[in-house]
TrEMBL record:
Coiled coil: none annotated. Keywords: Monooxygenase, Oxidoreductase. The keyword Oxidoreductase applies. GO terms for molecular function: FAD binding; monooxygenase activity. This is FAD-binding domain-containing protein. The keyword Coiled coil does not apply. Residues 4-326 form the FAD-binding domain. It comes from the Bacteria. SUPFAM superfamilies: FAD/NAD(P)-binding domain.
């Protein structure tokens, strides 16, 4: 049983895992490239799966106090304002007992809650350490310095992890950079007529998409916030910059006139961050004294809103496997086996769904608006859609043939 663990990356996955392992009495050192661990990235949706992991850590109420409960996801087509996506968490077969099935969360909120709990739990942090490689339980940083040996290294350093990239290549896999990404900005919550309980999106074809997600508050201020998204190909970013803000704002207002006020809070291009998406899945997220979790193990487009939740599930599964199996290799094999099917299903769904929302052609958005939109109104479809976005289409910690240990996360 590993007494010392090096975790690479202080994102939500790395922090949650470090905390769980510290609670098990292990000595845990998180290695982070920044001078100080800090939140990075857009506001996001915590699904029932992610909330279940926070329940297990006893942290749900602290995140709930900052986040914004969400009841549905709503998509409209810009031209005729027809509703083409309407997912309600109330349609879940087993909604959560507290009635909060999903939360919009600012990154700083989940970061602060997990980071404070890590510090209180005795997790150590080594900052300013950009890790380039891991072998035999040792980490080598970008300056070529190799540190002491740990019983186990866990790579939680995100989608562009060099450790996971090496493992992927060794396993014959490949990462695909996706053509589409998004610009995002944190803005004050705009209030009416926007829906405080839902993610709202407006589409024109699949080449234009605007999203507004209420994300609650940062830990240091009571002001309610939202994350604003605009679909963009990274390759078109320079053109977008040259075209100027006014032209872009006019286009956004043309698609969704109600956002005019919100656009006033985005003064210049610097207020919008460009997110690039890639897709990869490690065939086997473990190796000798190494486990890979979160985006490092499986990255994809965030269209289905699962990434943080998948990382938290990885963390819980790995921590439980280490707790219940004295032999390290066996524990790593159990982690890989339990997460295998759920990760593959959601990676496949993300890959399959994304072109309906982000693509150049007209065919897929037409199918989305005219076929899928109608199918989604059938009674059985509502439950499947709710289960899909909730991350419970398949029990996340129960592959085919596994024991039924996790009643909270039952598939529909
Ligand atoms: C625009 C956008 C919207 C999204 N919306 C959602 C959503 O609604 N719901 C959802 O669940 N997910 C969403 N995601 C996906 C989500 O952001 C990721 O899945 C999640 O952040 C992965 O967490 P992680 O801890 O595995 O990795 P990360 O959050 O990427 O954290 C990695 C950490 O490792 C550190 N690090 C990186 N490289 C090194 C290195 N070499 N050495 C040391 N440290 C290193 C980083 O600084 C960081 O602290 C969205 C993503 C984007 C871009």
């Amino acid at each position: 049983m590993p007494g010392t663990v090096a975790v690479v990356g202080a994102g939500p996955t790395g922090l949650a895992l470090a905390l769980m392992l510290a609670h098990q009495g292990r000595r845990v050192v998180v290695h982070e490239r920044f001078d100080e661990p800090r939140p990075i990235g857009a506001g996001f949706m915590l699904q029932p799966t992610g909330l279940h992991v926070l329940d297990r850590l006893g942290l749900t109420n602290r995140v709930k106090a900052l986040g914004q409960p969400l009841e549905h996801i709503f998509g409209r087509e810009a031209r005729r304002r027809r509703v083409v996506l309407d997912v309600s968490y109330a349609d879940l077969k087993s909604p959560r007992p507290d009635g909060v099935n999903a939360l919009g969360v600012h990154r700083a909120a989940i970061f602060q809650v997990l980071y404070d709990a890590c510090l209180a739990g005795g997790v150590a942090f080594e900052t300013n350490r950009e890790i380039a490689a891991a072998a035999d339980g040792r980490l080598t940083d970008a300056n070529g310095l190799t540190g002491p040996a740990f019983d186990l290294v866990v790579d939680a350093s995100g989608a562009r992890s060099p450790i996971a990239r090496d493992l992927l290549v060794r396993q014959g896999g490949r990462r695909h950079e996706l053509a589409w990404g998004a610009l995002w900005a944190t803005v004050p919550w705009p209030g009416d007529p926007f829906d405080a309980m839902g993610l709202e999106q407006v589409y024109r074809g699949a080449s234009r998409m605007i999203g507004i997600l209420p994300v609650g508050a940062r830990p240091d201020s009571p002001d309610r916030l939202a994350t604003f998204f605009w679909s963009l190909k990274p390759a078109d970013h320079d053109y977008w910059l040259r075209a100027g803000m006014e032209r872009w704002k006019a286009e956004v207002r043309g698609l969704w006139p109600e956002v005019a006020g919100l656009l006033e809070t985005i003064p210049d291009p610097g207020a919008l961050t460009l997110a690039r998406y890639g897709h990869h899945t490690l065939p086997l997220p473990v190796a000798d004294r190494l486990a890979v979790v979160g985006d490092a193990a499986h990255s994809t487009s965030p269209q289905l809103g699962q990434g943080v939740n998948m990382g938290l599930l990885d963390a819980l599964t790995l921590a439980e496997a280490l707790d219940t199996h004295a032999d390290l290799d066996e524990a790593l094999a159990v982690y890989a086996r339990i997460r295998r099917w759920h990760v593959r299903l959601y990676q496949g769904l993300s890959m399959g769904f994304t072109p309906f929302y982000q693509a150049d052609g007209q065919a897929l958005p037409w199918v989305r608006d005219h076929v899928l939109g109608r199918l989604a109104r059938l009674p059985f479809a509502a439950r499947i859609l709710a289960a899909t976005v909730s991350g419970v289409l398949l029990d996340p910690r129960q592959g085919p043939g596994e024991r039924d240990d996790y009643p909270v996360l039952k598939a529909p």
